[in-house]
Structures are given as C-alpha cells and as structure tokens.
Automatic annotation (TrEMBL):
<dbReference type="InterPro" id="IPR017853">
    <property type="entry name" value="GH"/>
</dbReference>
<dbReference type="GO" id="GO:0004556">
    <property type="term" value="F:alpha-amylase activity"/>
</dbReference>
<dbReference type="Pfam" id="PF00128">
    <property type="entry name" value="Alpha-amylase"/>
</dbReference>
<keyword id="KW-0326">Glycosidase</keyword>
<comment type="similarity">
    <text>Belongs to the glycosyl hydrolase 13 family.</text>
</comment>
<dbReference type="InterPro" id="IPR045857">
    <property type="entry name" value="O16G_dom_2"/>
</dbReference>
<dbReference type="InterPro" id="IPR013780">
    <property type="entry name" value="Glyco_hydro_b"/>
</dbReference>
<protein>
    <submittedName>
        <fullName>DUF3459 domain-containing protein</fullName>
    </submittedName>
</protein>
<dbReference type="GO" id="GO:0009313">
    <property type="term" value="P:oligosaccharide catabolic process"/>
</dbReference>
<feature type="domain" description="Glycosyl hydrolase family 13 catalytic">
    <location>
        <begin position="14"/>
        <end position="402"/>
    </location>
</feature>
<keyword id="KW-0378">Hydrolase</keyword>
<dbReference type="InterPro" id="IPR006047">
    <property type="entry name" value="GH13_cat_dom"/>
</dbReference>
Length: 537
C-alpha cells in the first residue's frame, strides 16, 4: 500500500549480515541466510529492516569499506540474492533499507586506484589530497576516529590523503561535483532495484573544510565522554573543520530530491556528534528537504539514561527540531549491548524497551536485542574489529555486540552455521536462542512482539505530542496526545526501589496486557522497581 509517511514512528530492525545466519557453511552470515530468517523478523511485527553493508569490500571495516557500490560481495551472495531478499521481504510486509557508506570508499575502490595514480588523472580530485607541511608532517592536526592522524602518506602520488576512519577508508571529496553525481547514481541504482530507503552512514563527515584549517583542542569541560573517553585522542579535539560543514546539507538536499522521485522512500542519517549537541542534529532533519530522520545517539551512551536526562533529550529535540524526526535506538553494531552497558537485568531491559516503544519518533531494534542478548566477551586472539585492536585493552572494540545470533540451543554453533563462525558463538547466549524463547510465553522475545504490536495499535505513541509530567533520577512520567485519539499516560520507574507518583488530572485506565498491574491508591500509583505503567485517558 502506498504510504509516503510510513517511516514516521516506524520500528526498524537492524541486521548485521555477517552474524545473522550462515547458509553455505563458511561461518559467515549471508543474504540467503537473511531470507531464511525473514519470517522471524516479520513475527516481531516491525515495519522495516536496515541491513548493514553487504557490498563488495575487502572487509577491513566489515563492509563499511566499499570497493564496489553496485554489487554484492561474493561472501554475502549475488545481486540475484538481494532481489530475492527484497521480494520476500515485501511479501511479508517488510520494507528494506540499505546502508550507504558514501563519505568514504575502500582504498580498493577503482575510483581511489585511479585517483592515487597521478595528480592529473580524471579522478585526481575525487579524494582529499594535500601536500605535507614543510617539515614533511601531515597537512593539519585532524585525527582519525580509529586512532592516529587522519592523513595517510601515499608513496605513489607523493601526497597525503584524508581518512576519517581507517587509512584504507579514504574520504571522498564532496567539493567535487562529479563525486556527488556519482554517489547519487549509486543511490539511484538501488532505488531502481526496489529498496525502500537508506541508512546513511556518517552524514556529518561528507564535507571537509576546503582550507584544511587545524581543529582547536577541546576545553576540559566539554570533552566527550564517549566510548573510549580516556583512550582515544579523537575525543579531545573540537571537530570544527573536519566535519559538519554547512555544505553537507546541500548534498543532502540533492539526495532528498532524488529520493522524492520514487514513491515511499525514507532515509535515516547517522550523525554521531554528542559533543556538538542537538543543534546540528536538528539542521540535518528540520523541514522536509534533507534526511527524513536523524539517528539519535542519546540512548546509546555509556551512562544509563535517567528520568531527568531522558526528559531533557526529548524536550530538546522537540524544541530544536519541531518539524524534524528522530530515530532512537538502545543498541547497534558499534556499541556495547545495552543489557551489559547499563548492567540491566531482565526487568531493566523490559523497562527500557517499553520506554523506547513509547517515544515520539522512529525506533531501531538491533538484532539479538529482542532475545535479551548481553555483550559477548571476545578474547584478543579472536578479535576482528580494527578499532578494538588499536585501543585494546582499554577499549575492547565492537566485536562483543557482533557475535552470531543464537537460533537454537542444540544446533551446531547455535544454529548459526555448521562451521566455526567468524566470531565465536557466546555460550551464555544459547539458552536465549530464538527456538527456546519462541515457545515460552512471557519470554523476552514474546515480550518484544507484544510491545511492537502495542505500539502499532496506538499511533499516538509514535506520532503524538509529548508532555513531561514528572522527571527525576528514577522516574519519568509523560502524556502523549493526538487529535481524535485517547491520550496515553506513560510512567517508568528506572530504578531498583519502588516509586510513587500522583496521577495527573483525568480518568486514567490501566492498559492490560503489558506486564504488571500497579497499585493505585487515592490517585497515587506505586510502581515497583524497573516497572512501567501505561494508561489510557
Ligand atoms: O560509524 C560512525 C561512528 O559514529 C563511529 O565513529 C562510531 O562512533 C564508532 O564506530 C565507535 O562506536 C559508522 C558505522 O556505524 C561504523 O560501523 C563504521 O565503522 C564507521 O561508520 C565507518 O564507516
Ligand atoms: Ca555464508
């Protein structure tokens, strides 16, 4: 059914293809494996899938280093498999969003090979090349997210090139119109193949400062308490010139115009800039001519979200981008799984999942979160993530959230593969396998199914306004309203101890079905630790 607004409030399931399901016994997940498991995803009742990159790649950053945007890596299958995946997903009512990594390519990409070959070839300006400073050092002080200088010396062309991530992920030069055109053609290629939208990787990194000015050092007070606060020097710079340039928005406007040529297309842009704040995020999504949604990092941080901080984030977003749209997530393939990151027991996981499903905005569920998976421990000898290898042991990298999905407790390698998987199957995940939880009423998996259904039946949750009634460290109470719909009262106890709150004015009726029936006495609700109260008015 045509529905240009399907993405507003949608629930999107993120698939990390290497770890979903292996179909040919090489220990690596693939597109045929995903097709086989689409029924599991459909059973969750989600609207769409976002598939992390499956394009041709030397896999140094596991697909986020693309060497051919227009083909499937043989490891994952063929274009025919992809077409079959889209067809099957559509039959099941699932939309397909693919992950376009446009800011950089792999150094194996034909464009880069040509660009590095001389200073005057047709693609000489397709990447960011610069001469050394007089003493031979890199052109400026920009740093790579993955460690060290953002500049790599190239012996062939005898110049430095810019890379915001791995040195084998050279940054494309978005100041070159032909680069923008080529990338738009890539998007068109996939739109013609029938995709429903995109997750756009690192949209904040597209354009760099033309003059290559040095970044200032960050003041102590504003240092980013991110994944590796005391480890990665990247977090001690203010990234004034290497990203978030205003020209990013100009490219995104071109990208949006292209999407608008096709029906029902949506994209979510990734902007990981906690330290720069919501102002920038709102620029990317405000109005209807850039990205539809901004992927929000607020619920992905190392510190457990309190009532006060949640309220602040939601309020800020509404004030700064009243006509913008956020897409929230608790976990993804880059961060420690939230069950472990926030040290949540099962009740805590259920509480935050309920909160997620009550937020205004769209939401992502990361594969395995619906099973309550914890972060797996991957020893150094088995580590694959280059980011983890660089900063080990202070930062253990991203492999712990990328281990294979357990499908059955008794199959070989949890039913993921007949062969030794590329990352070990976490033994403690086996009892949480899909087949185990599927048949257990009240399991985390069945709870997620109920939650998604609950949200889908009540559009006021996805799209209504939000008014915070009470917020403290442990308590968050808000009311969601939309014209012509019953208002909803949503209360969350984000702590261990019982908490009380006074019902706001109105006749609130507890909604049966989701968990615990709270004690209401004299307009005062008592919520046990880690419990939510949802009522309709
Ligand atoms: O991540 C971009 C991003 O925000 C990273 O800087 C993130 O902070 C880092 O991975 C630590 O968690 C995207 C992809 O999600 C990531 O997997 C890729 O490695 C990266 O881009 C480069 O393409
Ligand atoms: Ca495989």
């Amino acid at each position: 059914k045509p529905d240009p607004d399907w993405w507003r409030g949608a629930v999107i399931y993120q698939i990390y293809p290497r770890s979903y399901q292996d179909s040919n016994g090489d220990g690596i997940g693939d597109l045929s494996g995903i097709i086989h498991r689409l029924s599991h995803i459909a059973s969750l009742g989600v609207d769409a899938v976002w598939i992390s990159p499956f394009f041709t790649s030397p896999m140094l950053d596991f697909g986020y280093d693309v060497s051919n945007y227009r083909d499937v890596d043989p490891m994952f299958g063929t274009l025919g498999d992809f077409d079959a995946l889209v067809a099957r997903a559509h039959e099941l009512g699932l939309r397909v969003m693919i992950d376009l990594v446009l800011s950089h390519t792999s150094s194996e990409h034909a464009w880069f090979k040509e660009s590095r070959s001389s200073r005057d070839n047709p693609r000489a300006n397709w990447y960011v090349w610069a001469d050394p400073r007089p003493d031979g050092t890199p052109p400026n002080n920009w740093l790579s997210v993955f460690g060290g200088s953002a500049w790599q010396w190239d012996g062939e062309r005898r110049q430095y090139y810019l890379h915001n991530f791995l040195s084998k992920q050279p940054d494309l030069n978005f100041h070159e119109p032909a680069v923008q055109d080529a990338l738009l053609d890539v998007a068109r290629f996939w739109l013609e193949r029938g995709v429903d939208g995109f997750r756009l990787d690192t949209i904040n990194f597209y354009v760099h400062d033309r003059q290559l000015r040095d970044n200032p050092a960050l003041e102590e007070s504003r240092r980013n308490a991110s994944i590796a606060p005391d480890v990665n020097p990247y977090n001690f710079q203010e990234h004034l010139y290497d990203k978030n340039q205003p020209e990013n928005l100009v490219f995104l406007e071109r990208f949006r115009a292209l999407m608008n040529e096709y029906p029902d297309i949506a994209c979510v842009g990734e902007v990981g800039d906690a330290q720069i704040g919501l102002k920038i995020v709102s620029d990317y999504t405000r109005g209807d001519n850039r990205v539809h949604m901004c992927y929000a990092f607020d619920f992905l941080g190392p510190e457990r979200m309190s009532g006060t901080r949640s309220a602040q984030v939601l309020k800020d977003f509404e004030e700064m981008a009243p006509d913008g749209w956020a897409c929230y997530a608790l976990s993804n393939h880059d961060v420690v799984r939230h069950a472990s990151r926030w040290n949540l027991d099962e009740a805590g996981q259920r509480l935050y999942a309920t909160l997620l499903m009550c937020l205004r905005g769209s939401v992502c569920i990361y594969q395995g979160e619906e099973l309550g998976l914890t972060e797996a421990y991957v020893p150094f000898e088995e580590l694959q993530d280059p980011y983890g290898k660089e900063f080990w042991p202070k930062f253990k990298g991203r492999d712990g959230c990328r281990t294979p999905i357990p499908w059955s407790a008794d199959g070989p390698h949890g039913g993921f593969s007949d062969q030794k998987p590329w990352l070990p199957m976490a033994m403690e995940h086996l009892s949480l396998a899909v087949a185990e939880q599927d048949r257990r009423p009240g399991s985390m998996l069945n709870f997620y199914r109920d939650l998604v259904a609950f949200r889908r039946m009540r559009p006021v949750l996805a799209k209504g306004t939000m008014e915070v009634v009470e917020a403290s460290e442990d308590l968050l109470v808000f009311i969601r309203r939309a014209d012509g719909r019953a208002p909803m009262l949503c209360a969350f106890n984000m702590g261990r101890a019982a908490r009380q709150f006074r019902l706001p004015e109105g006749a609130w009726a507890w909604i049966e079905g989701l968990g615990y029936m709270p004690k209401v006495d004299n307009e005062t609700v008592t919520l046990p630790g880690w419990h939510a109260y949802l009522a309709e008015g």
